[in-house]
Amino acid sequence: MSAKFLFIPVSSPRGIGEYMRSLTLAQSLRERDSEAEIAFILSEAAPYTKDCPFPVYLCLSSPTHHSAKVKHYIDTFKPTVVIFDAAGRAAQLKHAKHSGAHTVFICQHKKKLAKALGLRRLSHTDALWWVQPTSMLNTLNPWAKIKLATLAKNKLHCIGPIVRTPDAVTITETLKKYRLENKTFVLINAGSGGHSVNGESAADIFARVGRRIIQAEPNKKVVIVYGPNYQLPLNVEDGCIHIPSLTPTEFSSLL
Questions:
Q1: CA-based, 20 to 30 A from 179: which of 64, 151, 155, 231?
Q2: pLDDT tens digit sequence for 77-135
């Protein structure tokens, strides 16, 4: 019987980092094991749910706020492993563990790690994945360090940022797709496209910087990636190359 992986990332109309990290992991798993069954639990308010290449169970908002639904989906899918990416309440971890699944909690900053180290969560977590440089752990408060050294000593795995590493062929194909040449363009992206600063879209602020670059250096190519949560029409008359969104592999290729 093939393993079954259930991903539960934070998801919303704003950020996308947790989902993209989980998607990167899921795609890597699929490449390693074509028989693996993979599913996601996502917020129906997140625009990218319709583009997810795996089966999706929906909640009204981020899964953390819908324990009854999450428990029901766990019972329905019967996963071998549940990966909570900065999401999930202690009750959800407990239910996943009691259902027979292995549980993983991904922490991307100190606040999430502090939550993960809560006794109720930690007792139902098999592995903590720290997706920052190991040196960042030195900035934790003394109490967190004590819990890491005692309660979570064999659970914490410092794996660093999770990104796809494209091969030369993939990089070449991606550059060709967007009519670009290596090291001849400026790449601009403000994350998911759903964030705002003082009421203005962060993506629009970044795009304005792109237009200034074009004005200063007319021969320079500027590529603006808006993100799947961006909801406004794109301005395609300013000389920049506008891309609504990219897959994790495409984005890594352009980087």
A1: 231
A2: 999 999 999 998 999 999 999 999 999 999 998 888 888 888 889 899 999 999 988 88
